[in-house]
UniProtKB/TrEMBL annotation:
InterPro entries per UniProt: LptG, LptG/LptF_permease
Transmembrane segment boundaries: 12-30, 64-82, 103-124, 299-317, 329-349, 355-376
Membrane topology category: Multi-pass membrane protein
UniProt GO BP: lipopolysaccharide transport; transmembrane transport
Species annotation: Paraburkholderia pallida
Name of the featured protein: LPS export ABC transporter permease LptG
Transmembrane helix as UniProt keyword: yes
Major localization class: membrane
């Protein structure tokens, strides 16, 4: 890196770290206040609340990194403009395009940091955070759903070679990935109910089996009509054969990783888990729009750092008479908040209108990138 690039990098990184931890401390305080509503329920003590909020901190950092980069760069360039440092750089031959390329170099480590937190640290600590809360409260994940969690299993081969479809209803998903109050409805290729299987609990056994306990298996066998009488498709007659089993090993494509989608929102899942869950939904011909938008947002969100740095560069061309440093920093905060708002808004609008996921995820960044380039063109001319 050149001397002026090292100077830019040092100033921006110092301000970035300070702003990042200042914002994370502020969000930690607000999240802790919100978590106090649960303190006192079950074994959920204040120490658990602090631990839960601390485990959520990496995801908060992931969300505010682009905004922190924007505010840090605006602060540094506003200070340089106030002290006429950036004017000296321009007189020495620093062109706008050259300054922009140097600024993007400075942003590369921040982009890599965003990917690291968003893909490795954040999803892991979010799941730990949810498990800490659920275990302390003694509750299960699906207590907010009256009928439990419904999942369509992949097509499986029956003993007679016929294709079958399963609909699995999980009453509760415990933090240790144990499922309870399980109901499994199996249909044949013509979507006729052929089997109802009830189990009190189940545990996953790799690579692809669930060990169900206290199982009641009810097989529905079609009864042929009397001779010389046509079968009534609207009023079929079945014979039920019920069997009680202490244990039953069920082969299934469902895994704890797929069910763990209930522990965290799609935006806080890793791209790997999102991709696996999208595959599962696609195999079962279910809607994947929400999760496709989430995975594209995960791919593109770190590059928002570059967009924020482009937006910050025009502030270096605004002299002190155009506004004091504090006003510029406040403008940067408002600009960053508006980006987060538009980014979230486009995700919901894209889901409602079934827009293409890449376009939905990329549009907010492209809008703000265009604003930054237009701002650079305007200040360069004036």
């Amino acid at each position: 890196m050149r001397i002026y690039e090292k100077y830019f990098a040092r100033q921006i990184y110092v301000a970035f770290v300070f702003i990042l931890f200042a914002f994370s401390g502020l969000f930690f305080f607000f999240d802790l206040i919100n978590e106090l509503n649960s303190v006192g329920h079950g074994n959920y003590k204040f120490t658990y609340a602090v631990l839960r909020v601390a485990l959520q901190a990496p995801s908060r950092l992931y969300e505010i990194i682009p905004v922190a980069a924007l505010i840090a760069a605006i602060y540094v360039f506003a200070q340089m403009a106030a002290n006429s440092e950036y004017t000296i750089f321009r007189v020495s031959g620093l062109a706008t395009g050259q300054a922009l390329r140097s600024l993007l170099k400075v942003g590369v480590p921040i982009v890599l940091l965003t990917y690291l937190i968003g893909e490795v640290v954040g999803p892991y600590t979010d799941q730990l955070s949810e498990r800490v809360r659920l275990e302390a409260l003694g509750s299960a994940v699906s207590t907010d759903f009256k009928s439990g969690v419904w999942v369509k299993d992949t097509l499986t081969k029956r003993a007679d070679g016929e294709q079958a479809t399963r609909f699995v209803n999980v009453g509760e998903l415990l933090p240790d990935a144990t499922i309870t109050n399980v109901r499994i409805y199996e249909f044949d290729s013509q979507f006729r109910l052929t089997n109802v299987r009830l189990a009190k609990s189940g545990t996953f056994q790799p690579p692809g089996h669930w060990l169900l306990k206290d199982v009641t298996d009810t097989e529905l066998i079609g009864v042929p009509p009397p001779p010389n009488q046509p079968a009534d498709a609207l009023n079929p007659v079945y014979r039920a054969q019920q069997t009680a089993l202490p244990e039953y090993s069920l082969r299934s494509e469902l895994t704890p990783q797929i069910l763990s989608v209930l522990l965290v929102s799609p935006d806080r899942m890793s791209m790997f888990n999102l991709f696996r869950y999208i595959q599962h939904l696609s195999e079962n011909h279910q809607d994947t729009q929400r999760y496709e938008i989430a995975i594209w947002r995960k791919v593109l969100y770190p590059f928002a750092v570059f967009v924020m740095l482009v937006l910050s560069l025009p502030f270096a061309y605004l002299h002190t008479r155009a506004g004091v440093v504090g006003v510029k920093v406040f403008g940067g905060i408002m600009l960053g908040m508006s980006f987060q708002l538009v980014n979230t808004l486009f995700s919901h609008v894209g889901t409602l209108n079934t827009w293409p996921a890449p376009l939905t995820a990329a549009t907010p960044g492209l809008i703000y990138l265009a604003l930054g380039l237009l701002g650079l063109k305007w200040v360069d001319r004036h």
